[in-house]
Amino acid sequence: MGAAKMSARRRRAVPWLVLGLWIVVLAAVSPFASKLADVQRDRAVDYLPASADSTQVAKIQDRLPGGEATQMVVVYHRDGGLTAADKATAAGQIGRIADAHTLTAEPRGIPSKDGTTVMYPVASTEPGTDEKARDRLVNEVRDIAKGEDGLGVEVGGEGALATDAGEVYDSLGGPLLYTTAAVVAILLIVIYRSPLLWLVPLGVAGMSEFLARAVAYGLNQGFGTSVTGQSSGIMTILVFGAGTDYALLLVSRYREELRRTERPYDAMAAALKGCGPAVLASSGTVAAGLLCLLAADLNSSRGMGPLGTVGVLVALAAMMTLLPAVLVLLGRRVFWPLVPRYGSTPKVRRSLFAAMGSSAGRRPLTVLAGGAVLLGVLALGVLNLPGSIKQEDSFTTKPDAVAAMGTLARAYPERGTQPIGVITPADRADTTLAAIRGTQGVDSAQKGRTGDGWTEISVTARNAPQSAGETATIKALRDRLDGSYVGGPSAEQLDLKDTNARDRRIVVPIVLVSVLLILIALLRSLVAPLILVAAVVAVWGAALGIGGLVFGPVFGFEGTDPGLGLLSFVFLVALGVDYGIFLMHRMREESLAGAEPVTAALTALRTTGGVIASAGLVLAATFAVLTNMPLVQLVELGFVIAVGVLLDTFLVRTYLVTSAAVALRRKVWWPGPLSRAPEPPVQAERQPERV
């Protein structure tokens, strides 16, 4: 009797203790969660390759007298040709800008050959590396430079573009969080068909996101982990997407156990024991895949690894501790009106997944071949992907800086309109300057600041920015100037492209090996992990192929982000294997319980199919939120991942993986002991609980 009382007291106390602990933790970290936005940096150096020339130029410029220079170009334009009054207005406004701010040199007007445009390069070291000060400077210049009587005035250049991009990234946080939460809420209401139940996982996900922001801030302060608008946005997506997936699996198993177990505490303990290993393994796989990004040389990719991992692990901790505690405290009534009564039996209906399983069971090789051909055909769309995107095409709506770049490209087709920055040892400045002027493709070059043993040289190319001619000039300068660094906006884009190619060669194999080893350890097999890995790689290729079919013809995008291939691969492999673990883990459970191979495969599909479909829809919807963002790189990444998750959920997991398991039978567990166990006689397939 005493032991029974103690057990009952424990059942009542544990959920309250867990809830109390979470309240204490959230209260303790609340001062830090709000500070994440303060350490978010979206300067070029925060995205650039760590070892590239352009990164070294940006870092050395910070140490020159006055620090980093904010480069702008004030553009005056009239279609019919600039009038004398227009030129006087331009000169007067530029004079006011020079009087109001300390500039590195006196601005000189450069007229276009057709007489329609005059541009004034403007540079100031006033802001240094302070992004807010840079934004104030750019906005003050824009306040002064105003058009009158049909005179068009735009402020472009690297500094203005950084300000416009920063405003876009700053605007992502709130809308991204609210939109993601709203999408998840709608899907949970549809899935659970309950006016109450959806609030619990959504609320826990919101608390997880709050804690994740605090942990991310701690990583930045303790280890210098870079935080960008892109990485913090992806972290939010992962907290809600992955967290809701784990919640769906747990709640489904908990509902199942409530029909077999009288007390909610005991039912939750059984649910955690049943699905806990699969959830832990799947989250570990995602975290391991994301941490492989630490091997990337690109700063933005390398910083995304730890932040994404934080999002996944915090979501895991919340869904495996806080969510069970809240559900136990609320009891069965949280499922109202579809309350799972103790001893009741759910209505058994023939589901979509039962039909899918039956077709896969009857003709597994045909299904496998058909699915492989379909994925292969879709992957051919990769050949239609547009080339690397230019800076002016990276926004879905063009800000002022991008409009200025377009005006300059039309008015000055014969010359470069943004500087190529060269940093050279001060004692070799004159020799370097002569070598630059003698390089093919260079229009002009002049020395700038000197300090800390380095001299800055500003170079103007004869070709338009990011054109093949300017790219050739940058490469020629790098080949010719030993001991010097060549940077600037166009050089940065070139380095981004080259480094992403390098990172794909390094990171992709690491991700594949890491995920494969985890799967081998979990499933105690070699064949099953190889099937899962091959499936997610095929999904990645097909999703990219679909992107190639729609990015240009449908969305009108002029290019793709150089990091799209790597980031979409990491996320689709890690998250795709996530669902494979749910399916294969249940299949292994059924086999260990004595089911023959075909029955085990089809029962696993029916018992997990609904949960996997629901989880896939939620995860795809959360990443699809990115397609509403104003940056092309986020739209493309969100689209590819969302499409890939849907392909994985409704084609690969349900049809191809199940068909492969049916066709291979016990061999799917080779060389583990389960592959050598004698097959029991064919038995009736277990009818699952209705999810």
Task: Characterize the biggest β-sheet.
Answer: 4 strands, antiparallel
Order of helices and strands: HHHEHEEHEHHHHHHHHHEHEEHEHHHHHH
**Any idea what the shape is?**
elongated
**First-to-last CA distance:** 37 Å
Sheet/helix structural class: alpha+beta
Beta-strand share of residues: 5-15%
What does this structure look like?
The chain has 691 residues and is an alpha+beta fold. Helices cover 64% and strands 7% of the residues. It is built from 22 helices and eight strands. A four-stranded antiparallel sheet has the order 2-3-1-4. β2 and β3 form a beta hairpin. It is elongated, with a radius of gyration of 29 Å.
Briefly say what this structure is.
The chain is of the alpha+beta class.
Task: Outline the secondary-structure elements.
Elements: H1 2-33, H2 36-39, H3 53-63, E1 70-77, H4 84-100, E2 110-111, E3 117-124, H5 131-144, E4 152-156, H6 157-170, H7 173-192, H8 199-223, H9 229-258, H10 264-291, H11 299-330, H12 352-362, H13 364-379, H14 400-411, E5 420-425, H15 429-437, E6 442-451, E7 454-461, H16 468-480, E8 485-487, H17 489-523, H18 527-550, H19 564-592, H20 597-624, H21 632-664, H22 673-676
Antiparallel strand pairs: 1-3, 1-4, 2-3, 5-7, 5-8, 6-7
Helix pairs in contact: 1-8, 1-11, 5-6, 6-14, 7-9, 7-20, 8-9, 8-11, 9-10, 9-11, 9-20, 10-11, 10-17, 10-19, 12-13, 12-20, 12-21, 13-18, 13-21, 17-18, 17-19, 18-19, 18-21, 19-20, 19-21, 20-21
